[in-house]
Amino acid sequence: MTTRMKQGIVAFGVGFALMTGAAAAESFRISTGSQGGSWFPLGGAIKNFIEKASPGTKVSVMPGAGIANVKGVQKGKFPVAFANSVSTVDGIEGRAPFKSKLDKVCNLGTLYPQYLQVIALKSAGIKTIADFKGKALTTQPRGNTGEQMARVLLGAYGMTYKDMSKVHQVSYNDAVALLKDNHAQAFVLGTALPAGSVMNIATARDIMVVPVPKAIYDDLKKVNPAFQFTKVPAGSYPGVDKDVPAVAYATHVIAGCDVSEAIGYKVLTAIADNIDDLASITKSMKGLTIKMMGADIGVP
User: Fold this and answer.
1) How far is residue 116 CA from its own chain's centroid?
2) Which of 48, 52, 244, 287 is spaced 20 to 30 A from 264 at the CA atom?
C-alpha cells in the first residue's frame, strides 16, 4: 500500500495496528449479491484477503441483494454488505420500497458504477421501453435494485407489471434461459458492464440495449440524486454498434454506523491493497483510488 493510500484510511486504522492475538481475532459476515453477478465473487475475494492479512479472523460471505442488504444492515443482521447508492439513499429518505427512514446505515466505501441495463431481443420489435407492453419481461427477484428499477421505468411510461404478458422475477441464470428460449423478450437488470448474463444471451440471440432517455433520467434525478446519466458504449455487447443512453449509480460497501473500527479497517484495507486483483473479477474496479472510495454519494 502506498503512503497516500495508508493516509486515506488512517481514520479506520488508529489503534487497530496495536491489536494483536485474540483482540484482533473476530468473526463477521458480509452480505453480497446473487450468484452469477459481480458482488458474490468480489465478496469472496475480500474475505480471502482479510483472512490472509488477519490470521484468526473469519469472514462469512452470504448471497444477498441491493435493497435486502440495506434492510439487513439496518436491522443488524450483518455488519457489512454490498449495496447500490440509489437504494441506500431511498432507504435513508424513507422512500419506497422502504417503509421508514433508515438511521443505522453508513457508507464504508464506494467501488464502481453500476448500470441499469435494459435489454431486448431484436426479434421482439422493441425500440423503446413503451414497447414492453404485452411482452414477457424478466428481471431480478424482489429485494434487488434492478427489480425495483424495472417497476420505476414501467411507471415512467404509465405501465405496471399488469401490462406485461408475463413477468419473471428470477436469477441471472434463469433469465438467460428464458430469453434464449424466447419465453421472455426483455430483461431489466442492474449490474456492472458488461454483464456476463447478457453476454451469455448474446451467444444465442441477437440483442439490443434499449435507451433510457434523458427526460426519464431528469425525472429520476429529481427524486434521487444518486442517479447518473451515462451511456452503454458501442461494442459493450455483440451487435451494439452505437452508444446507448443509460442511467447508472454506484456500487458501494455499507456498514452499520456503529460498526467496529477494526472491521471497517479490515474491509477497506482488503480492498485498497488488492484493487488490481479485484479488477480481474470486475473490470469496473480498475483504476479505483482511495479518493474515489471516499466520494460523497449522499450516504452518511
Assistant:
1) 10
2) 287
Query: 54-94, pLDDT tens digit by residue?
Result: 999 999 999 999 999 999 999 999 999 999 999 999 999 99
Q: Choose among 89, 67, 92: nearest CA to 226.
A: 89
Q: Which of 67, 86, 79 is nearest to 106 (CA)?
A: 79
Task: Report residue 286: phi and psi, to 5°.
Answer: -60, 130
Return the axis-axis angle of helices 39-53 and 261-272, rounded to nearest 10°: 110
Interatomic CA distance for residues 129 and 121, integer angstroms: 13
Torsion of CA 267, 192, 278, 227, to 10 degrees: -40
Half-sphere exposure of 95 (CA within 13 A, CB side): 11
The contacts of residue 270 (CB under 8 Å, 6+ apart) are 46, 49, 50, 53
* 188 within 8 A of 137, measured Cβ to Cβ: yes
Residue 89 CA to residue 101 CA, distance in Å, equals 10
Helix (DSSP H) and strand (DSSP E) numbers for the chain: 12, 10
Query: What span, in angstroms and rounded, lies between the C-alpha atoms of 264 and 56?
Result: 16
Neighbours of 20 (CB within 10 A): 9
Q: What's this model's pTM, rounded to 2 decimal places? A: 0.78
Are residues 111 and 252 in contact, defined by beta-carbon separation less than 8 angstroms? Answer: yes
The set of residues, in sequence order, having a beta carbon less than 8 Å from that of 263 and lying 6+ positions away, is 26, 28, 79, 80, 255
